[in-house]
Amino acid sequence: MQDRQLAGIDLPVKALAWEDEQGKVWLSYNDAHWLAERHGLGDASRNAVAAIAAGMDKVIAAAAGAGQF
Predict the structure, then answer these.
(1) What CA–CA distance (Å, rounded) separates 53 from 50?
(2) Phi, psi angle pair for 20, to nearest 5°
(3) Which residues lie below 8 Å from residue 35, measured CB to CB, with a gap of 6+?
(4) 18-28: b or e for each residue (b if 16 or more CB lie within 10 Å)?
C-alpha cells in the first residue's frame, strides 16, 4: 500500500470457497502478481508481492489437502 495507496482496496488478500451446481468445490482468489499489475506496483513492492504470493500458495495447498494422506 505504501507504493500505491489504492492497492489497499484489494488488501488483505481474500479467497472464496464455493460449491457449484454439480457439488464440486472451488477456491477463487486474485493472484498477487495480477494485483500488482492491476495497481501498477513497482520495485518498492516487489518483496511484499512475492511474500503475498508465497503465502497464498501455502493457503491454497492447505485448503486442497496437499501433503495429506
Answers:
(1) 5
(2) -85, 180
(3) 7, 10, 13, 41, 49, 52
(4) eeeeeeeeeee
> Are 57 and 49 contacting, i.e. CB atoms less than 8 angstroms apart?
no
d(CA 47, CA 24): 35
Q: Can you read off the three cell numbers belonging to residue 56?
A: 497464498
pLDDT at 20: 97
Helix axes 46-63, 32-39, angle to 10 degrees: 150
Q: Say how many CA atoms lie within 13 Å of 69 toward its Cβ.
A: 0
CA distance 14 to 44: 22
Low-confidence ranges of the chain (pLDDT < 70): 67-69
Supply the DSSP symbol for 44: G
24 contacts: CB under 8 Å, gap ≥ 6:
none
